[in-house]
Amino acid sequence: MSTDTTETTATPPASASVATTDAAPKRRSYWSLWAKVPREFAFLILTMPIAITGLVVLATTFFTGLGLIALVFGVFIVVASLFIARGFGTLELVRLRWAGRTEITRPVWNRDNREQGFWRTIFAPFVDGHYWLYMLHGMIINPVISIVSWSLTIAWTSVALGGTTGWIWQRYIPDGRGDQDFWLYDVVVDWMFPGNTWQIDPVVGETVFEFFLGLIFLATLPFVFRGLTLLHDVIARGVLGSWRSEALEREVAQLAASRGAAVQAEDASLRRLERDIHDGPQQRLVRLQMDLAAIERKLERDPESARELLVEAREQARETLDELRALSRGFAPPILQDRGLAVALQSVAARSPIPVTVEIDLPTDAALPASIERNAYFIAAELLTNAVKHAEASGIRLTVSTRDTGATGHWLDVWVTDNGRGGAALTAGHGLAGLEERVQGLRGVLVVDSPVGGPTTIGAHIPFAPLAAGETAIQA
């Protein structure tokens, strides 16, 4: 039993108003700033207390350790200050993420296993530049920037809220001022309205002036908060984030690991193929050669016996051909090249002695590279074979789909689930270990969930780059 589903995406009607689509993002963009104001205000209002606390703690521990550096425990105090700086820097990254900023990639602190062991843990911060940058951020950069941002936050919020609400509560506060205290207000009125002959109550005029000034500050409040938060974000990315060279190192390490896994997987596949050919078709061909020689000797003396040997030889040839076809399924079969991955997987499922439910969701506009289709076919066929041989299952489900995660690109997901006895594990030298090496060679991930008693779910997640329009998906 098999089902083939195709995902469809609804498109908006072409008659949509251009003016509406142009205006809506603008309205949403301004009000989206207001939506983040509470979190940005909480971030900014706590910045200076945290920064001053960090400055006091770091300066105390660091300079105390330097003063006692001649003694043994002075080194430990300096190391402790570096770890404390790392803690305050990590807190800053967490706060920025909570404030709505894009997550900043953190440094890899234990790369090359440098922090394994007591002495490596002690001396690792001295040779890691990230610790010193975190110390610089906690002792100098963050306190200075936080004073500026915190002061602007308090001032802008006070003027915005005080100006717009002053007309409510100012009348209840006695100030004891006389008319001489409103000289600045008179100057402003004379400048804005030269030659006016009417009289305006100074108290009312001041209230109106403060109200409009508060409205201006309130309207620009989201932009100020966003700018101050962005300032902290830019500084954190440059000082607290990981370096581009570290990303390149991780990329090189991953490529080396995937290449090594691919080489091991191909070597294991070739060795298995060599063993299967030696144990199967090669032995049958030797037997066939011996039968043909016997037929040649008996053809004239005992035609009836020669005819029986011919029947056996034909049977041997048929069985040898079947075994060669079975072995060739480890490579790209003709149906995969001619009709694509979905049809090839349905063909594999149809040959299974256990009923297989097939659910395939492969968009027609996202062609898979040839190498991805061949490996996906081989992985699915191997997982189905393992389920038939070892799971003692009565039903199997094969699910194949693609997804676009955005940041990490496109992925092909191959899931095989059976209702058998479970207990499958990634044991070295066994079939699943070889599949894991193959998947790692493709820079993918193999997930095995097989509790004792079942069910067993095994998923292969393979990254891929969709072919551009006009490219050929399957190459000979």
Q: Which SSEs are present, and which pair or pack?
A:
Layout: E1 2-4, H1 18-35, H2 37-45, H3 47-67, H4 72-98, H5 118-127, H6 129-169, H7 183-192, H8 202-239, H9 244-279, H10 281-298, H11 303-328, H12 334-339, H13 341-350, E2 356-361, H14 370-390, E3 396-404, E4 410-418, H15 431-441, E5 445-449, E6 456-464
Parallel strand pairs: 1-2, 2-3
Antiparallel strand pairs: 3-4, 4-6, 5-6
Helix pairs in contact: 2-8, 3-4, 3-6, 4-5, 4-6, 4-8, 6-8, 9-15, 10-11, 13-14, 14-15
Structural class by SSE content? alpha/beta
Number of domains: 3
Strand order of the largest sheet: 1-2-3-4-6-5
Q: What's the helix count?
A: 15
- State the helicity in percent bands: 55-70%
What is the CA-CA span between the terminal residues?
A: 31 Å
Tertiary shape: elongated
Could you give a short account of the major beta sheet?
A: 6 strands, mixed
Residue ranges: pLDDT <50 for 5 or more in a row? 1-27
Instruction: Count the E strands.
Output: 6
Q: Could you state the order of secondary-structure elements as H and E?
A: EHHHHHHHHHHHHHEHEEHEE
Mean pLDDT: 75
